[in-house]
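Fold this: Stage 0 sporulation protein A homolog
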Amino acid sequence: MNLLLVEDDRVIAAGLTYSLTQEGYSVTHCPTFSAASDAIKNQSFALCLFDVSLPDGDGFSLCKQVKQKSDTPVIFLTARDDEGNVVMGLDIGADDYITKPFRLRELLSRIRTVLRRYGGESQKNQITVGDLTIYTNEARVFCAGNEVLLTSLEYRLLLIFASHKGQVLSRGQILSSLWDAAGDFVNDNTLTVYIKRLREKIEPDPQSPRYIHTVRGLGYRFGEQ
């Protein structure tokens, strides 16, 4: 289940991305209004987390853009705690409004509550593609009924792919999603190594991938051939 996080503070964004990924979500992070606007146009998300104040725009406008496209839930994360901004956010269709600083457990609880309201929480816990099944609430992966043991980074890489099934992801997009505050450093060269290792663990034939397909000059696409 892919969440859109729009936050211009890199430290906050890294911490949230790591924590949400640990909870089984895939996170697309955009630091600017323009990047978020493009993501909304080109991708689908289960839920959006928007900061209100952005370098080149505001979260209110992004919320309107989301709601015009689909009934995707939106939660605002912002330091603006005055009543006027809270009312404005809710009036334009936001599902919740959380002021900074906030506790991570509170945010996770509110995310689950909103997703249940939209019927998405029950779908979050299992992702199945062909013979491959990911139980995100347990962080366990099975292939043809046999459990596949993955490292933390391999698991997060698989979640990124599975949450964007059918979409072509550039190496830059994958690297951005993998970067987190836990100290894991992944560059372009090591990404190749991790994709190779992941293929060796989940593919029936790594030389002829069934799930992780290379799209020449563009990146990778996840899904059955």
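The longest helix spans residues 188-202. The radius of gyration is 18 Å.
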